[in-house]
Amino acid sequence: MTNKILHINSSGRKEGSLTRQVSEKLVDQFKKDETNVSVVQRDLASGLPFIDEQWINANFTDPEQRNDQQKQALAFSDSLVNELQNADKIIIASPIYNFSVPAVLKAWIDLIARARLTFRYTENGPEGLLQNKTAYLVMASGGVPIESEMDLATKYLKQVMRFIGITDVKVIDATKNDLI
């Protein structure tokens, strides 16, 4: 059985990024400790499309009723959701920019938070559909202590993970981690 890892980098810095360094060491550790590990790398730094009216209309159209243009509008989002659905472990490397996540990571979240695919609405509210996965949040900040009251980014990412059904969430403070 293959252990599938989705490794997401969101730092705008390619060189010298602490979250990139620590998350790569975490991937290397999994490769060393486990057999049959496959890794999908998703680097968000080069940008992602933002959801727009065309995307929203396509997303809220019943999948059986979507025309070719609507299917095309959702194609990239579908591929991101597929990466998540296929992963056993999700590693999200994120710096804290202005108390929150980088805008490109928020764009990724908007593209993967999909009713009927990663969550569904029930009588009791939304229910996440991505079960039996573990998320590792590799966080770094130049001034906001990780998981402090000022750290809105980690709280937000934990909530997003719960929303889509990932309840096993581990936070790694890249500034204190001995992986590097």
UniProtKB/TrEMBL annotation:
Binds 1 FMN per subunit. Its EC number is 1.6.5.-, 1.7.1.17. Gene3D superfamilies: 3.40.50.360. FMN binds at residue 11. Transmembrane segments: none annotated. Residues 4-174 form the Flavodoxin-like fold domain. Keywords: Flavoprotein, FMN, NAD, Oxidoreductase. Its cofactor is FMN. InterPro entries: Flavodoxin_fold, Flavoprotein-like_sf, FMN-dep_NADH:Q_OxRdtase_AzoR1, NADH:quinone_OxRdtase_FMN_depd. It catalyses: 2 a quinone + NADH + H(+) = 2 a 1,4-benzosemiquinone + NAD(+); N,N-dimethyl-1,4-phenylenediamine + anthranilate + 2 NAD(+) = 2-(4-dimethylaminophenyl)diazenylbenzoate + 2 NADH + 2 H(+). Pfam families: Flavodoxin_2. Belongs to the azoreductase type 1 family. Quinone reductase that provides resistance to thiol-specific stress caused by electrophilic quinones. Homodimer. This is FMN dependent NADH:quinone oxidoreductase. It comes from Glaciecola petra.
